[in-house]
Amino acid sequence: MTDESINSLNNQTREAWNATAQVWDERMGDEGNDFHRYLVRPAIEKLLELKPGQRMLDIGCGNGLTTRRLASLGAKVTGIDFASEMINNARKRTNLYQENQELIEYQVLDATDETALLKLGENSFDAAVSAMALMDMAEIEPLFKALIKIIRPGGYFIFAIQHPCFNSMHISLGGELIENETELYTEYYLKVKGYLKSSKIRGLALENQPQPHIYFHRPLHSLLNTAFQFGFVLDGLEEPAFPEEIAARSNAIGWSRFNKIPPVIVARLRI
What we know:
It is a single chain. With 271 residues, this protein is of the alpha/beta class. The chain contains eight helices and eleven strands. The longest helix is centred in the N-terminal third of the chain and has 26 residues, at 3-28. The chain starts with a helix and ends with a strand.
């Protein structure tokens, strides 16, 4: 893609997330949705090597959900997002509910802008985290290029994304009624229609989302090779699925029905 087309996609994405910010904040609140509570947060914290007082960068922080959680664990956290309305909501929630507000700073900052990221300071962070944001970014090369400089040597970057193998705009979930001699039951399945080619498609993250945003699908080899290109190595990986008890109590055909297929992948990349 040309720089002009990337900038256009980035501006469209920013506009969509600003429009969605209020609905997102109301839905996610301070605890997050089921994806965050059961999949993303536990997997991220399993890979964390956090010590009190360490400096963390939260990339694509949204309404500050992960930022506040890291601060509650004792980290000094800078949360960044390119959607100013998201940052406004993050600040409001932090001012209202967070006990350790002095550990948190928010900035409106575009994670696709290497120059802006570098202004955060060389070797300024012990680690960085991004919870479900990379698949919403028009390009990721500037981020990895900057992270290798602003994270201290030996530090790491943990990211959580929709699992590109199983959970993208190219897949569909379904159910089939099965009858045999002894029982009648529903068998749930996943159909993958595309994986290997990077692509972009508009979609909704939430019901009642006022404006669709753009999902940027990247197969694992594309995503990880970008990180490797700039000096990261992969040294931790989680593929969480919903617990059996969640699947058992769900009636709808949705991700909560699947306890053997991971809709999320969480990786730790180390410098």
